[in-house]
Design a protein that fits this description.
about 300 residues; elongated; four-stranded mixed β-sheet; Zincin-like; alpha+beta
Length: about 300
């Protein structure tokens, strides 16, 4: 039976996120196993198993790192600093009001010194969370619009979106890095010479087929992993918009904030392709937000239309 209510969607998103994490771990293990098959020479099976276990180990290390240190790493990469409570009294007041209304503990509040308006949240749970806003967001949005953006980010924390976004991002990066390393090794012929003397043996054709499968997997695995990551990110933006509007009871302010953020021409220098999916609006200007496999966010018109339909 499909999930229809907001809380049903939250439960479905959590369940699907854990499923996605497991799928990405299996992809990482499969890629490592394919590399083992290539380097295994005449007897590829033991190397496949060993490399596959190493791949699972890499996935576990990446998951633990993102769980315990993901927020700090993302804030450092984004060049964010803690917002002083005395200097940023209004910003702290708005966040405190929303936390009281939602029953959430107050997350750490950071500022990115950039004129492009945008914001994101990160952390592993509501007790270990953080929200970052740019200087441009505070300067260019009204108080109600700022409240709508912060409510959207608190909704990501409340729904445990950011934990999975961080973990998935690190796993996808690990898959891409491992595939790149293995493909470079193949390009330089490492491991291939041991195989050449046995090409005429009975197992030569099977080894050649295994090599083709390994190559295809290494090429397609990063692409498939990124598609899965971005598809989940898009669905979570819809849910955070709805949850944020419910929190403030003012969907129009969030809709106006999305319009202003998207219309602002300044690029966000601190953002990159590894963190773009965290922001409320894609910070990398010039990239189409059409509904495609490679879009990090849902189409903005659709998000705004859904918010205004709530009124």
């Amino acid at each position: 039976m499909p999930a229809t209510g907001m809380y049903d969607l939250i439960r479905a998103n959590k369940r699907n996120s854990w499923l996605l994490v497991m799928v990405l771990c299996l992809i990482l293990a499969a890629v490592a196993g394919a590399g083992g098959a290539y380097f295994g020479g005449n007897d590829p099976l033991p190397s496949m198993l060993v490399f596959g276990m190493i791949g699972l180990g890499i996935a576990m290390i990446g998951g633990l790192t993102s769980y315990f240190m993901g927020a700090e790493m993302i804030m450092a990469v984004s060049r964010a600093h803690l917002a002083d409570e005395a200097d940023q009294r209004q910003l702290h007041n708005v966040l405190e009001e929303l936390c009281i209304a939602s029953g959430l503990p107050k997350p750490k509040l950071y500022i990115i010194e950039d004129n492009a308006p945008n914001a994101f949240a990160c952390g592993r749970d509501p007790q270990h969370s953080a929200v970052a806003v740019t200087r441009g967001l505070m300067d260019k949005l009204s108080r109600n619009e700022l409240q709508g953006v912060l409510a959207h980010e608190l909704s990501h924390i409340q729904n445990y979106d950011i934990l999975f976004a961080t973990m998935i991002g690190i796993l996808v990066g690990s898959i891409a890095l491992l595939c790149d390393m293995l493909l470079r090794s193949m390009r330089w012929g490492v491991g291939g010479r041991r195989r050449s003397s046995d090409e005429r043996s009975g197992g030569g054709q099977a080894q050649a087929l295994l090599l083709v499968v390994a190559l295809v997997l290494m090429i397609l695995a990063p692409l498939f992993a990124q598609i899965l990551q971005l598809a989940v990110s898009r669905q979570r933006e819809y849910l955070a918009d709805t949850s944020g509007a419910k929190m403030t009871r003012d969907p129009e302010s969030l809709a106006r904030a999305l319009e202003k953020i998207a219309a602002d021409p300044e690029p966000l220098a601190a953002a990159n392709r590894g963190t773009q999916h965290l922001y409320i609006v894609n910070p990398l200007k010039g990239l189409s937000e059409t509904q495609s496999w490679f879009a990090t966010h849902p189409p903005l018109r659709e998000r705004i239309a859904r918010l205004r339909a709530l009124t």
